[in-house]
Amino acid sequence: MTWIQDNWTVIFPLGWSHAVLAGVPLVIGLILAIPLGWAARRWRRAYPVIVSTSGLLYTIPSLALFILMPLILGTQILDPVNVVAAMTVYTVALLVRTVADGLGSVPDHVQQAATAMGYGGLRRFLVVELPLAIPVIIAGLRVAAVSNVSIVSVASLIGVSQLGDLLVDGFNRNIPGELLLGIAACLALALVFDVVITAVGRALTPWTRTARA
Amino acid sequence: MIRFDRVTKRFPDGTVAVDELDLTAPTGKITVLVGPSGCGKTTSLRMVNRMIEPTSGAIYLDGTDTADLKAAEMRRGIGYVIQHAGLFPHRTIVENIGAVPTLLGWDKKRIQERSMELLERVGLDPSVARRYPSQLSGGQQQRVGVARALAADPPVMLMDEPFSAVDPVVREQLQDEFLRLQDELDKTIIFVTHDIDEAIKMGDQVAVLRVGGRLAQMADPAYLLTHPADDFVADFVGRDRGYRALSFQASPRLPLHSERTLLMGEATDRTDEWILVVDDEHRPQGWVEPSRLSGPVTEADLQRGGTVARASGSLRAALDAALSAPSRRGVIVDDSGELIGTVRAHEVLAAIEDADRPELQDDDQAGSPAPDPAAEHTPS
Amino acid sequence: MIQSIIEWLLSPESWTGSSGIATRLWEHLLYSAIVVVLACVIAIPLGLYIGHAGRANWAVTLANSARAVPTLGLLFAMTLVVGPMISSELAFVIPSIAVLVLLAIPPVLSGAYAGVASVDPAARDAARGVGMRPLQVLTRVEVPCALPLLLSGIRAATLQVIATATIAAYVGLGGLGRFLIDGLASGDYVRTAGGALLVAALALTVDGVLALVERYAVSPGLTGKDVGDTAVVASTT
Questions:
Q1: What is the per-residue pLDDT across B114-159, written as a single tens digit (0 to 9) for each?
Q2: What CA–CA distances, in Å, run from B56 to A92, B16, B180, B345?
Q3: Which of C10, C20, C18 is nearest to C179 (CA)?
Q4: I need a surface site. Which of A37, A153, A176, C173 has the fewest CB within 10 A?
Q5: Which CATH superfamily is domain C19-236 in?
Q6: CB A188 within 8 A of CB A18
Q7: A64 neighbourhood in chain C, CB within 8 Å
Q8: Helix or strand run (H / E) with residue A40
């Protein structure tokens, strides 16, 4: 345990890069998933295509996708962009379906009422449908965040540094304390993501609380 | 015959769903359990096939205590129809109908034949046989539910709000068809509903239960409408009960007047206010106003608002025919639909005044000789 | 670069021998199959019981929250703790298999649980009502109706296992992961990328096969797919 006392401060820089590698794809993924999810709802034929394509992308094992990214992007194998891009693929794959289903969960009568009041297509989407889909999208984001934090640690095997380094180094040098610290730090980071996303979700959907009270 | 002997059901949380229920459902009749939610009607029904076990008391099926039978085997001999049909979504319609025969180990060919026979019996097209429940409408699913319950020809049937999940038009159709089916089959049926109109329509006898699972009154529908045992039953039976009770009173010999008629396609120079139009077989088609006719009578000239009553039908139908006819002359036909005459509302009313109401019985099943005033005013 | 990867994938030498693609592929499939079978043996009865009885839901919550533990950390920890207890060469295999089984349990468990819990209560009630015994209700109604969710749970678990088995090469497990890990260690990008392509292809193939299994095993009545024409439906009420 002396290792932890001497070195515990390393979790801050590593934790920060872990948060960036897991968090940035979450934001980009969400921004990409919203129009894709909308398209999947808008055109009936697009739904199976978009959903099954994203399902296939999610199927590719993370280590393989990290390694194949340089082939697709033309980057160097050690470039963190590979990890950000791969994680964005996973996030989009997971969220497209969530967004589509979330938009689908908006009751018909609400949409029709909005149309009857004169909301046009895009405006109705932004003002009525998207806000009402937020609870479902938030739930999907929480799943994606936990999964991202866990997967990012694998990037240590291709030499992109984050909390996973503690796991690899702890294993290679047989330092159980370092390994445990790495696991605990990953769990803590996942928890932070979860708390932040939940809080944002609550702030964005005040009506769900008054309805229950 | 199904007999409840002081049956009580107390749930683990302490609520008493059924309280000392004594009740007999006679062989070959429909006994309806009706009451507001929380009156224990479904619980009572489900205790018969031991989907719920009674806390105390016993239920006898033709004299045998059901507690002495093996639950699963016993259920195979009791038809069971529930509100949302409860069809097995992963099985085709024929497979659903053949569920009990399959459990009983019939051979495949016999199951198939029996299922197809029932499919037609409940009014479904044989082409639905290979479909799955999700491809059928609610009304069709409910028909399959009835067919499944009849598959092994059980003498007893339990029906738990079987027609409440479909729209009113389909419900009425299903009720009529089921009554016709029951005419041929003579099953011993317990039928649960929350709808007093359905209870009165379907029941040979009706048991009204109050919240807390106590029997408020048990009587045949006509008696229930004319002599509700207390305020609770009167309230539950509802408005218009005087009028509705007429449904159960056969028309006596009404003073019929002969009606001058006009054949479809004929022209007339008469100037009466209303003339009844009939077809070649003397069946009433509708009323016309001669002043509006510009030639021979066509379909478009007919006023079809009036109902038609059978001479063998009820006083209610006769009165309704008189009230609904634009001429105020109620059209009465024989059983083959041929016109035999018309009757006026005041004449039907005179017949009603002369008719006997069901006599008040001193020993009616739930009538308490010294009614507890608190119980009489149980809010519904 | 891409050309040399293709050459490596196509050359017969890469496929043969005790560390060739064929052997590694076989190992990968074998380990994955063992793990999924073990996970199913544990998780299906448990999930069916929880879903059927509506009790012990905490087990599902526990299994789901355990998914937040980084797989890499779990793998390393198990190898460090359990590895030294085993003296044979299985020291690398058993901890990895154990971790993979642990990872495969949550999806199978929640699939089985959610599948049974989602069965229409009216269908379950009717099954008892027509005289099925408890075991018949389970095998004839609940399991067939739970099949879509159960199978998709097994499918998710299988893909998770194939992916994690790749990483387990780092702690000494055989399988296609060897090409990735050994290639990375020796800076041989051709072998690394070739291995990655094989792993991706394997995952996609298995996913496709399981999708076909789902299609044939699940009753069309549950998937809502068209069976013949639907025109007759409206003919009677």
A1: 999 999 999 999 999 999 999 999 999 999 999 999 999 999 999 9
A2: 60, 12, 37, 54
A3: C20
A4: A176
A5: MetI-like (1.10.3720.10)
A6: no
A7: 163, 166, 180, 195-197, 199-200, 203
A8: helix A11-42
ipTM of the complex: 0.85
Nearest CA-CA distance, residue C49 and chain A, Å: 26
pTM, 2 dp: 0.80
Whether the CB of C163 is below 8 Å from some CB of chain A: the reply is yes
* Cα B29 off chain centre by: 12
Domains of chain B: 2-248 (3.40.50.300), 256-370 (3.10.580.10)
The domain segmentation of chain C, as residue ranges, is: 19-236
CATH architecture, domain defined by A15-203: Orthogonal Bundle (1.10)
Reference B79, options B137, B21, B130, B122; nearest CA is B122
**Strands ordered across the beta sheet of B78-81:** B78-81, B156-160, B188-193, B30-34, B205-210, B214-219
For the ranges A201-205, B300-304, C160-164, which has the lowest average pLDDT? B300-304
Instruction: Round to whole Å and give the CA distance between C71 and C77.
Output: 10
Please check whether residue A126 touches C, CB under 8 A. Answer: no
Contact A182, A190 (CB under 8 A): no
Contact C73 A61 (CB under 8 A): no
Which residue type, as a one-letter code, is found at position C67?
A: R
Residues B152-197: pLDDT tens digits? 999 999 999 999 888 888 888 899 999 999 999 999 999 999 999 8
Neighbours of C88 (CB within 10 A): 8
